[in-house]
Amino acid sequence: MSRVVVLEGGRSLERQVSLRSGARVRDALEALGHDVIGVDVGPDLVSRLTDTRPDVAFVALHGRDGEDGTVQEILELVGVPYTASGPSACMRCMDKVLAKHTLRDAGLPTPEFYAFSQTAFDSLGAAQALPAIEERLAFPVVVKPAAQGSALGIRFAPTAEEVPAAIVAAFSYDTKVLLERHVAGRELAVSVIDGRDGAEAMPVVEAIPLGGDRYDFEARYEIGRTAFACPADLEPATTRAAQELALATYRVLGCYGFARVDLMLETATGELTVLEANAIPGLTETSLLPLAAEAAGLTFGAFVERVLDLALARGVPA
Amino acid sequence: MGRPRSSARDLERYAGLFARRTQGMKSSAMRDLMAITARPEVISLAGGLPDTSTFPAEDVAALMARVAADASARALQYGPTEGMDELKECIVEVMAEEGMDVGPDELLVTTGGQQVIDLVCKTLVDPGDVVVAEGPTYPGAVPTFGAYEADVVQIEMDADGMRVDILDATLDRLEREGRRPKFIYTVPTFQNPAGVTMSLDRRRRLVALAKRRELLVLEDNPYGLLRYEGDPLPPLYALDRGEYVIYLGTFSKILAPGLRLGWTAAPRPVLEKLNLGKQGADLCSSTFGQHFVCAYFAQRNWRDLLARLRGLYRERRDVLLDSLEEHFPAAAEWTRPRGGLFVWATLPEYIDTTDLLARALRDHVAFVPGRAAYLDGRGAASMRLNFSGVGEDDLREGVRRIGKVIAEQVQLYSTLTGTPPEPARRPQAAAEADGARIVPLRRRAG
Known about the structure:
The complex is a heterodimer.
Chain A: E1 3-8, H1 15-31, E2 35-40, H2 45-52, E3 56-59, H3 70-78, H4 87-94, H5 96-105, E4 113-117, H6 118-123, H7 130-137, E5 141-145, E6 155-157, H8 163-170, E7 176-181, E8 185-195, E9 198-201, E10 205-209, E11 226-230, H9 236-252, E12 258-266, E13 272-278, H10 288-295, H11 300-314
Helix pairs in contact in A: 1-11, 4-5
Chain B: E1 9-10, H1 29-36, E2 43-44, H2 57-75, H3 85-97, E3 107-110, H4 112-124, E4 130-135, H5 142-147, E5 151-158, E6 161-162, H6 164-176, E7 183-186, H7 200-213, E8 216-220, H8 236-240, E9 245-250, E10 262-265, H9 268-282, H10 287-298, H11 302-327, E11 333-334, E12 342-346, H12 353-362, E13 365-366, E14 368-369, E15 382-386, H13 392-417, H14 429-433
Parallel strand pairs in B: 2-13, 4-5, 4-7, 7-8, 8-9
Antiparallel strand pairs in B: 3-10, 5-6, 9-10, 11-12, 12-15, 14-15
């Protein structure tokens, strides 16, 4: 039995999802007989950690602070072992631009893209490069903030006229944005969970939009507007390729414990490409990772226990 | 490697259990954003909150003691669905203050004004039925309309409220399509969110139109007594004498929203159905709360609190308007309400206020994105700003912070498109000269 602090909530835009992930993790830990303390992460984080002296922290935070390495650095500083990826892998996953560069450098497929910081536009005249970019990517292009975990701030720009407003919107969420080639195809998510024999890819989940606007990102993970199939109805070779690509992504980005890799299966070419990796994907009743794990025979309790063991085994980096 | 199971498994374990109408209930990214606005470090102009600190705690304690001493057992008991007779007398008094003549037997006490909107939908709306509302409309009514699967048609407004001419044309069109709206929902006085007030002429035309077409109008009037300047206008209910107008009133803004007490006055056949609907919803509204309000009205000083609130909100409104003038860019426009709790501001069309809210929250300031006031995705460039629930210093600072993030986006857009930002603010001479003028809601033609 361990004394476990579950970090949840926080000030990120994904606070609500995090609170639900945290509640579910706490329930599972209590059922396993652990001594559980929930902490809504705020300015008192360090004092809460030093006061409660936990054996280990379960990080159930999503988005800014919790998923970008900030909280992980603090945990290492305070000397508390914690679940899932370390600071550098968190930074690579949270920053889509860094993740895509890392993947591209490693020879892993990711849709063609161009990224800009606000400085590039403010001080370096990057706006003049937009027409050339638009020509290379072809329309529609997808405009995304580099560091935003949910659908917020992601826009399709069907024409050049709509690119500036999409960029303004994306900069609402981060100081860096990317313009990405739009891949028309099937949306797949592959969860990866570490085990005694190394990382394992879970069965592939497919998100199937139910009518409506296929460019409506908000609908993507909303009950009633998107259906999820697990395992996805794919050729066995495609399933294997998706799982291998997810594992390769997991390793290249340096993830630990668990993560979820989002992929596209392009209709025109049959090619698989990596959109992004989530260092701490949702762990709610309707989230994809726990459901994929269950489809593989790994209950949520067993998943939580395994992730906790991995955290304790890693300990605190010196 | 986990072994995939042979059959595809639907991961939405609960989805099959939900009623079809829940698909009209959106759990949106906007709601996640709004959840953060409640954090203590955030200056929130997003709420619709009255300033409840105006009501002294010792007065609350005295009233509670009074209820306990005089009517403890009754105050803890169930009450009649239609509300306590004594409370209805208080409501008659409040409505008379705005020139309305109503009998106690024409009233139904409800759990806040919000319940009236719910009960009216429950009573009148079948899935797919048309409900007509203003555009923008009260954001709190949007999920109610959605839950009852109403097809909401929103009518444009200007400085004089709902465009009744457009309403008339729209009703003609609907009639040709064989669709008769179930009711017209309006907040004619100090509209939420737009802050505008329907002119007397339009009120008369709306009431005449309702009579001619035999259509019900739901008049939502939470703010009528919160007038800071100008002469009061008669409510639609007073003009119509309760023939086609269902009236919605509330104690939330003249006393306290925590009591959750409102009421409706409606044509008798409608009232009877609303009563049945309420029985199914909650049997009766809080009896304790009703006793509390009766004890409060027995002191005969409810107009004093109202006068204090008017003074306080008038000053806050002025601070908000001055701050907007100082900190918002030239291309922004906003309404100048003569009462109520809200100002509606509209930015250049390339700014999406839902995204802007995410940026503003990093600077710890919040507002309601305009899209929350529409059912069809319009309103993306507008925002609702509340001035009643925030102190003057926070109002100034909040508007300064919002102005800063807007300026950032205006500058960025200008850089991206290679067009200069709009020139400095034009003097608003025309608007200042005529206190009644309100900047039009539409920023540009087309």
